Structure formats: C-alpha cells, structure tokens
Request: fold
Amino acid sequence: MLLTNRSKNLYQEVILDHNKSPRNYRAIEFPTHFAKGHNPLCGDKLDVYLIVDGEDVVQDVSFVGDGCAISKASASIMTTIVKGKSVDEAKELFTGFHEMATGKIEPSEDPKLRRLQVFAGVKDLPARVKCATLAWHTLDAALRNKQEISTE
Amino acid sequence: MLLTNRSKNLYQEVILDHNKSPRNYRAIEFPTHFAKGHNPLCGDKLDVYLIVDGEDVVQDVSFVGDGCAISKASASIMTTIVKGKSVDEAKELFTGFHEMATGKIEPSEDPKLRRLQVFAGVKDLPARVKCATLAWHTLDAALRNKQEISTE
Amino acid sequence: MNDSITKSKVTPARILEIRRDFPVLERTIQDKPLAYLDNAASTQMPRQVIETVSAYHSFHHSNVHRGVHQLSQEATDLYEGAREKLRCFVGASSLKEIIFTSGTTDAINLIAHSWGGMNVAKDDVILISNMEHHANIVPWYMLAKRTGAQIQVIPILDDGSLDMNRFSELIQQPNVKAVCVNHVSNALGSVNPVEEVCRMSREKGIRTVIDGAQAIGHFPVDVRSIGADFYAFSGHKMHGPTGIGVLYGRQELLEEMGPYKGGGDMILSVSFDNISWNELPYKFEAGTPPISQAVGLGAAVDYLNGLDRQLLSSYEDELLAYTTRRLMEIPGMQLVGTAAKKVSLNSFVIKGVHPHDIGTILDGEGVAVRTGQHCAEPVMDRFCIPATTRASMAFYNTFEEIDQLTDALLKVTELFDVTD
Amino acid sequence: MNDSITKSKVTPARILEIRRDFPVLERTIQDKPLAYLDNAASTQMPRQVIETVSAYHSFHHSNVHRGVHQLSQEATDLYEGAREKLRCFVGASSLKEIIFTSGTTDAINLIAHSWGGMNVAKDDVILISNMEHHANIVPWYMLAKRTGAQIQVIPILDDGSLDMNRFSELIQQPNVKAVCVNHVSNALGSVNPVEEVCRMSREKGIRTVIDGAQAIGHFPVDVRSIGADFYAFSGHKMHGPTGIGVLYGRQELLEEMGPYKGGGDMILSVSFDNISWNELPYKFEAGTPPISQAVGLGAAVDYLNGLDRQLLSSYEDELLAYTTRRLMEIPGMQLVGTAAKKVSLNSFVIKGVHPHDIGTILDGEGVAVRTGQHCAEPVMDRFCIPATTRASMAFYNTFEEIDQLTDALLKVTELFDVTD
Ligand SMILES: Cc1ncc(COP(=O)(O)O)c(C=O)c1O
Ligand SMILES: Cc1ncc(COP(=O)(O)O)c(C=O)c1O
Reply:
C-alpha cells in the first residue's frame, strides 16, 4: 500500500491506535469540571470530564464522544498527558498545541509538545485543524467552567 | 454638423417638426373613447381622445402628453392619419406600424404605411421602439375601451 | 428501428473529448491526477462558459434595462437572451415564468416569503420530505415560526425512496397548503416521482415546490410535463457560474404574489406614499441583476444543448452501476441510498472509519469527494449516521476515476484495518 | 513638505496607461471611439479582475466550506481571502462584520428585514433622504407597510445637498429608529456629510443605514471613521463583477439580528422542530455564496489598492470641473445637482429636448450616458423634471471624452434648434 506522504504523516500508527482503543474513554460520575464540545462542520461531539483537586492538579480526566480518528486520538492522547498535571500546565499545553496545529510554531520548539507532535501534520489541512483541537478547546472550556462550546 | 446616419435617419425633419408643433395637441371635452398610455421606462405619458361616429368612423382624434420627440411626433402624425379613417382601418394601421417598428416588415411592403415610414429607423434601437408605438398602443386601448395601459 | 442506433453509446473517446472542455480536470492533486467526484456540491465549467463570461466582461458589460446606449442594449439583449435560453431549456410557457435569483436557496426563500406569506396561515400544513436539503427546509421552518403553520414530514423508505403511500395519506388532511420535495436528493441520489407528487397534489389543490438543484445537471427537465407549480435550481450545479439560480413559477401564481426584495427595476413608480410593482418577471428582480452570471448560465445551456444529453444520461447510469459494483468490493461498506431510480451519486459509510478521515485520505490520492451531512441533517438522523462520504459524478467522469476512487478506499480500509 | 510632492498630479499618460487595463474602453460604437460615461450605472472591469475570475473558473472552482478536498480548500481560502480584502478595504474591525450579499439592494433588504423586523414597530419613524435610490426606499416602504411605521423625508436643498438644518430638527422627534442616507447620490452626484449624519444620529441612539453604492468606486471609504451602523455597496460599481455586494454592519448589531434567508451554511443544526443559527458572518450567507464573484471583487480591491486612489480622486475632481465648464457652453443647459461636494457626475436637462432623444443621439456619437429617472423618482419630483441625462465619470475617463460629449451635445442642440 502506497499512501501519499501527507496521509502517512497524519495517520501515524499512534493515532490509529488511540483511535481504535481510546484511553480514558468513559464518563466520570462526579466530575469537578465538565464541558461538551461540538464541531458543527463535522458533526463531531465530545464530552470532557475532569476531577481537579484542592492543589489544582488534574487527578482524573476522561472523555466520551464521536468523531473522526484525528479528534478521537487527540482526545485520548490529551487525557493521558494531562492527568497528573496542574491546571496551569494543562492550559499551557493547550496554547502550545494550538500554535503547533495552526502552524505558528514548530513542535521541536517546545519539548513539552513532544508527545503531541504526531498532530503537527494537520497544519497543512485547514479543514482538519479543528478536529485536532476540539478536545483541547473542550478541556479549556471545562477548566473555565463553560459548559458548552462550539468550535465553529 | 455631421450626425451619424442612424441619428439622421431617426430624427428626420418631419419628426422634428411634429415634435416642435404637434398637431391635434388638445383634450376633447366629450370623447367617445379615451385612454391613458404610460411607458414607465421613459416616464412618457400620453392621453388619447377620440370621437367615433355611428358609422365607426373617427371624426376627431387628439392627444395630450409628455415625452420624447419620437413619441410626441408619433402621436401627432398618428392623429393626422387616423382622422377620417374607420375604426378597422385604424386598427390595421396600428398592426402595420407595430410590425414595421419591430422590424417584422419593411415599410415599402405596405403602401398604407408610407407616411409612417419616417419611424422605420427605431427598429435598430430596441430601447426606443416603445417610444414610437406608445401612441398607437394607447389608441388601440381607447378603441377597445381599456382606460389605462402601460407598455412595459 | 435499427439495432445499432438503439444501442448507440457514448464512447470513452467521446468522454475524453468532452473532458478537454473542462480545464480543471487536467489538474493534479498531490501529484495524482484529480478525480473530481464532488459534482453534487458544485459542477465544473467548460471553457465555452468561462470564455463567454470573459468576453462579456471584456467587451459587452454595462447595466441592463433603462439604458439607451449600445453597450446597455447589448448587455440587455444578452441578459434577456439568457432568460429565453433558460425558458426553453426547462420548457416554461413564458419568459414571465423565469425569474433569475442568486441560487436555489434564494429562489426557495422567495417562494416561502412571497407565496407563503400570502397563502399560509396558522394551522396550515406544509409537507416536507425527509430527504430535503436545508434550502427546502429552513425557509419553511422560518415561515412556520412566523405564521404558526405546521411542518409535517413525508417519510422515506429504507432504500432512500419517498414513501408514496404515506404521502398519499398525508395529503388527505385538510389545510395542506404546500408540498416541498426535491427532484433528486443530494444526500441519497434518489430520483423522486415528482410528476406523481405534483399530479396528486394538484388534485387536492395543494401547491408543489420542487427543488431541482440536483436534477438539472443530470437529465433534461420539463417543468410542464412535471406539472410543478414552482421549480428551483442553481447555475453552479449545471456547469454555469455561482451567484445565479432560476425560479420557475406558474405565471398565474407569480402574478398574484407580492414582491420579495424591494429596490430598483422591480417597481413601476415610487413616491414616499405609494409604490406600484413592475410586471413579471421584473417584479421579483430587484436591483442590478446577476448579469454576467445569467450570460454564463445561458452559455452553459448552449453547451448542454450541444451534447447528446439523453446518451450522456445513460452513460451516467452505467457509471453509477459500475461505481456501486466497485464500492461493494470495499470491506465494511454500507451504501446509504439504494433507490431503484438514482442519479450517478453514491453516499456511503465504512464501518469504523469516520467520513472525514476517508475524505482526507482520498484527497491525498487525488480523489475529491464530499464528507459530512451534505446540508441534509434529517437524512442523517433518519439513517442514524452522523455523516457520509459522497462520490457524485457528472458526465465527464470516467470508469478510470471510479477505479482511482476504489483503490483509494482500499488504502483507507487497509490503513484502518477494516474487515467485513 | 516638498511642493512638488503636494502638487503631484496624475498625468494624461498615466490615465492612458490605466485605460489599457480596461478592454472595453478600446471599443468603437457606430465607428466612433466609445466614451463610456455611464459609470454610475455600472463600472467597467480591468483585465486583472477578468483574468482572476477566469483563472478561478478554470482551475480552482469548487463549493466552499465543509469540503475536505483540496479544490474546496482552495475555493474557501480564495473566498474568505476576499472577505479579508474587503474588510481591510473599508476598515471594518472584524471579518464577522463583512457579509457578502448579491448587491447593495440585497444588502439593504437584509437590514430592513432582519434589523427592521426586530427593531421597528408601529408609529416608529424612519428618516429617508429625498435623494435616495429606490434601493434605499422600497425596502423601508415595505417594512413600513408591514409594521405601521412611518417614513419621513429629509429634504434636499436646491443645489442638491442634504438639508442638514431640517435633518437636525427631524431627529429631535421621539421614535426615530433609523436614518437612511446615501453617501453619494447617483442622480445628483452630491457627497453627503455622512460622518455628521452618523454622529448626530448616534447621539440620539438612532441607527444609520448608509448606502455607499456610489461612493465606493470614487474615493477611499472607512466605515469606522464614518461611524455608520450599516454600510452597503455593490461589486459592479467598483470595477468588480455583478452578482455580489457587501453589507458592513457593526458586530454588536449583527449579533442581535435574526437571520435573513434560510438554507445551508447559515445554520448550525437542523431538525424539523428546531434550528440553530450559525455564527457571523455565515448567519447571513445562506446557500452557496457568490464564490467567483467574491474572488473577482477581491481582485478589484487589489487593483484599486494598486492605484494611487487619492491622486485619482483629485483627477476626477478636475474632470468634474472641466465637464461642468464645458456643459455650460451648451444652449439651454440646466445642471441638476450643483452641491459644493460632488463626485465626477453631472445630471442635466436641456430646454426643449427630451433626455431620451439626447441619449440616442449621443449613442450615435459613441458617447454612452444614462437618461431617465436613475431609480430616484423622488429626486425627479423634487426638481419637477421627468428625467435627466447623466454623464458619470470614473478615473479612466479623459478630458478628450468630455470634449466628445460636448461636441455631441452641440449637435443635439443644433438639431433641435435650441437657443438659450
Ligand atoms: C445610490 C445607489 N444605491 C443603490 C444602488 C443599487 O445597487 P444594485 O443595483 O447594485 O443593488 C445603486 C445602483 O444603481 C445606487 O446608485
Ligand atoms: C438538493 C439541493 N437543494 C438546494 C441546494 C442549494 O443550492 P444553492 O446552494 O446553490 O442555493 C442544493 C445544493 O447544495 C441541493 O443539493
């Protein structure tokens, strides 16, 4: 099978794996923070749940939703990275990820983005940037106590 | 003064003369037939008055109105031609005139159109055909007892 | 009749010849030849149309109507000449029945506003098929909100065809004022029996609003033999420019209707106390119309008339059959819309792969398809799917392009490890 | 500042160079060179615009938004790129404030429908200047009929300028909701003090609807320094294509407004029971937008930005002064509209000669002017004339063309034997 480089670059093994077996794919019954994300262009929908402790550390984070491989893998990888981080660190990661996905910075510029650089390929596909960032936008909304967001 | 042939053809002496001194330019107090004509594209307005006798002969015909030289001269010449004709002859003239003005027949094809052939030039100027035919349309409407017409 | 004639077919060479009229079809995408299979979203323009528009822009442009100078007369003749071409193309009786709009959406809004505003009241019923494009739903929804009228849905069967039994029941109700059905569904490809829909509606005195956006590019349309009260379509779906569409309406209905937009050209006289409307079709064409777009659309009509449309329709049927067969080779494939009568369009889902991922990967292989809800959310809800991938063909598409699509889809299912 | 810079002027050679960009200007009419003096009706397009549209049609066309394939992305980038060009061109704060419509008429109908429908009620007052084009009268008239609101007229002075004293009185009334004034009158050429109109209105909480159709092609416009709530214009009056226009609206107002047309792209989600609207600017752009037209309009903006507009504005002022002087040589001449601030446009009547006859004879001499009421019947009524002849210039017109106009007019007056 000979896929174009662009597709190979975007649909790397790790993304396909997280798409197939998303981590932390469950609802949390009593979250401290919660938000619903919606990308009306694609129809993608995503719920993000968080438990943040008194020290502002993310004790648990999970998601449930429907979407393309990019958005699902992005959500799954996000949960694994954010767990155990402080709220401020999570927000910083969001900013960095957003800048990378929109081509404003190179992933190599920020060592914290190492595990996220599999998504760097979306910067060449403007229609797919929102797929990659939906989970992060939703996380950000949850942390700001905004219950519903739409990326359109 | 060197005018283009087209203009010379259209604005012949006889038209300019009728424009300047329109014949039968007056209202008839007790007409047997009457109609108002209106060309909303130009703003031209024309009232046509007739007295038709028991034999269906046009005893008197006149007009009052505002318009361009073509429409005014056409109305003026129409009144001079129609006076004394039968209603059927007037209607026939209208048909012939209309066909000439829209280029469907050559004026030479119909000897009755001889005095009207000064208007043959409008056939090359679609925007002006209605100026030339307004008086005739209004005459026709009057004879059919339609009080108001618009050529648009 | 001679056998060789009845079986006469479009040859591959003829299709290649036609393709040369369409500059964009020579493009490559990611170093692959472009296979443009997004014709339901918008069709491509032949150079005959492109050049006509350019020539108009270069040498004949001026504002239409009301002008006594030659350029204005030329522009008017070209604009009104295009109207005559369109009249003839859809078999309308009179030029008064051909209104230029900015598109199908604008045309249906015109109907809902001007006809609906006068004829639909509280508790009246508007029947809308479950396979309508948002363009034939939202204007009616807005009218219903305003007037208190009710919208009822004509269901569709599992194969994506209209439920005519239910339809015949629904029209028995009193107060049904309008039936809104597309001639061809953009999400399913189904060709609806609009002649029957119109006949049955007419017998009950119900008005029919037929959305012809997806029909007009695929086969000859005759509004009178369909018997539609209103028929709407867009230029850009029949190889003409964007920014223009046509509303056909029966003269009698159009005469009664109040105006839509206000402005120049649609009025006879204006003062601040009183305004009188112009006659048809101008009553519905406020302001400077889409002049060069009408001229371009007229050129598209000429282009289509110059082709053997009947033969090309059959060619598209073969193309559809071939596409359907090849798609069935793909693991996890489920076609959405399998009605007996379809235009050359296939909507589908592949188990476990989101349409967006399919679209992106296909694009990498040079194959342009559309993915999503196709502005037909109720269809998606009906089939309980969030979105589909849609390959929509035109007469210039080839069997090779379908192979290119199939190969690309096989790469998708391999990548995503899809099994049947 | 250096004298030679402050006095720098457009040279005739520069104008001839600019003219070469406009193919139509090379035409002859009746064997005479065309003098196109009907720019207020529609301006001509430079080849830069014509070629951009052709290239779009040939190689980049596809439907915008919602498409994941490359052509659709290219079309979307070009379409949205055009929006950014327009935003910058008129100095709007945000892309959300730039709505593509099908023209000025469509834009004002949008305002009257969506803003007016929500904000104007029985006995409210809408102020409309006596020099408005029908496009800024009829939509308000229709709204007034629907709501029972009142239209009141802002009078104009004998020179064709706005009666600002009367205006300042009129806005003292309670319940004045909107002021509708054109930036430049198409029938008179007057440039209205819209900054002052907007400032005075704003102080009273009254909304301003500025019709910029005739301004946008003549001089740089900045909606924020004008302070307009709404500002509308058309592509075909600024050297772009027909079928497109722009509505600028302050974001805050647009956010509150309900939708205009219903259809695809202007909604977020649709079911038969509930619909939610999309965000700005898409809420007001239902259906497939005028894509190639927006791209062409963007090219027109690029073209204008590449010229020295300020200098060309001064050139047009000189051209106007020259035209005015030459026209005064014509026997029986009466100018209609002699305000101190005017664009390069002269409306006039000649004693004893109907404008239509003037128009036809001028056409025979290669001179394209417009005759009639110019979709501004109230202006004609105000000056008690049935119609005028209008010569309207653009930056590509020359002094020689004005001489051609003058010579042709002298032939008219000779033919009709007009004396002073
Ligand atoms: C002042 C003014 N307003 C509005 C319009 C209407 O513009 P359009 O016909 O492009 O909608 C025109 C153009 O005729 C105009 O001159
Ligand atoms: C069936 C159908 N109706 C209406 C429309 C709307 O057409 P337009 O976007 O040209 O107004 C479309 C196109 O998307 C369509 O497919």
Q: What stands out?
A: Strands of chain A lie at 33-39, 44-52, 58-66, 148-150. The domain at 5-150 of chain A is CATH 3.90.1010.10 (Sufe protein. Chain: A). The mean pLDDT of chain A is 91.
